[in-house]
Amino acid sequence: MNAVIDEDLHRSFGVILSELGFTIFDIRDHVLRGHQDDEIFQFAQTHKAVLFSGDLGFSNTLSFPLGTHCGIVILRFPNAMSTKMINNIVKKLLGKLKTNDYVGNLIIVSPGKLRIRRHKKNRKS
């Protein structure tokens, strides 16, 4: 799977995603730093990539409707938490997911917790 990493996440997060099998596109390497959310979103869709960000704007399902994208993952961690600790938690939680857990869905990752808001087509019965 492909992953787009937004500029608000630490570069070391790309290493974690690579270890989980993702091919990484960091927007800082693609001249997109400071661009609008819709441009970042479109870049992710063009690359058929899951979008990883800390920006709550991407969790707005009116702007980025469920089922219309390759997946959006929002990381919600306290500012005081170390990058190393965040990466370890995220690696453990995301390691439990399968490809179809991402597609079309919104995933919120926070300390010790993973929430998936599924597109109705992807909901488990």
Describe the structure.
27% of the residues lie in helices and 22% in strands. The chain has 125 residues and is α/β, with parallel strands linked by helices. The chain has one domain: 3-Layer(aba) Sandwich (Rossmann fold). A six-stranded mixed sheet has the order 2-1-3-4-5-6, with helices on both faces. Strand 1 (2-5), helix 1 (12-19) and strand 2 form a beta-alpha-beta unit.
Structural class, please? alpha/beta
Net shape: globular
How many beta-strand runs? 6
CATH fold naming:
Rossmann fold
CATH architecture annotation: 3-Layer(aba) Sandwich
- Major sheet: size, sense and barrel closure? 6 strands, mixed
Any chance you could write out the topology, listing elements then pairs?
Blueprint: E1 2-5, H1 12-19, E2 23-26, H2 37-46, E3 49-53, E4 72-75, H3 83-94, H4 99-102, E5 106-110, E6 113-117
Parallel strand pairs: 1-2, 1-3, 3-4, 4-5
Antiparallel strand pairs: 5-6
